[in-house]
Amino acid sequence: MPKLWEDSISSHRHAVREAMLDAAAALVAERGLTGVTMAEVAQRAGVGRATLYKYFPDVEAVLHAWHERQVGDHLRQLAEIHERTGSLEAVLEAYAFICHDHPTGEPAVSLHRSHHVAQAHDHLVEFLASLLTDVRHDVPPKELAAYCVHALAAARAVPSRAAVRRLVAVTLAGLEPSGGGRGGGGVGR
């Protein structure tokens, strides 16, 4: 098969898959995770159900693929924010708002227990650890990163955007070295 033909087939398949995931995202936004069916995803994506089943065996697989894409997008967003601003505070605030805007309800628990989420969590901790190397010398950066991830996950339960910002401020304050200890650097904002 000529390369151009392979590229166009690959591009087409990618576009169809993205349309299916976009349809799933729209349905989740309208009806929640439990309100999505294969028939509705196919209809919304503009494909036949047989085509949808060629890509995904069931609605759970569609939702997992959509969630994996969403998590990847969030990680890219955080990296772009750091690249653009160089600000730890901006990255932590963005992560807190992601948590706040995407609370984990009971139906979403299975999505959050999947393999891609564990990988994304590890990637997030490694990314934050790389930003925290000069913050303190008494606590390893990876532990500080885990602290930030867990502390800011509380943003899912706070009532307002102002509360999210307060949570970020408290988290940043927790990164400050204790008075006169072996800490160093301080938190760059």
Tags for this model:
70% helix; 189 residues; mainly alpha; Tetracycline Repressor, domain 2; Arc Repressor Mutant, subunit A; elongated
CATH fold annotation of the largest domain: Tetracycline Repressor, domain 2
Helicity level: over 70%
What's the total number of strands?
0
User: Regarding CATH, which class of the largest domain?
Assistant: Mainly Alpha
By secondary-structure content and strand pairing, the structural class works out as mainly alpha
Distance between the termini: 54 Å
What number is the mean pLDDT? Answer: 87
The CATH architecture of the largest domain comes to: Orthogonal Bundle
Label the overall shape: elongated
CA gyration radius, whole angstroms: 20 Å
Major β-sheet profile: none
Describe it for me?
With 189 residues, the chain is an all-alpha fold. It folds into 2 domains: 1-57, Arc Repressor Mutant, subunit A (Orthogonal Bundle); 60-189, Tetracycline Repressor, domain 2, CATH 1.10.357. The protein is built from 9 helices and no strands. It has helices at 3-31, 38-45, 49-55, 59-85, 88-101, 109-112, 115-131, 141-152, 161-175. The radius of gyration is 20 Å and the shape is elongated. Residues 180-185 have low confidence and may be disordered.
Task: Write a concise synopsis of the structure shown.
Helices cover 70% and strands 0% of the residues.
Describe the protein's topology.
Layout (H helix, E strand, L loop, with lengths): L2 H29 L6 H8 L3 H7 L3 H27 L2 H14 L7 H4 L2 H17 L9 H12 L8 H15 L14
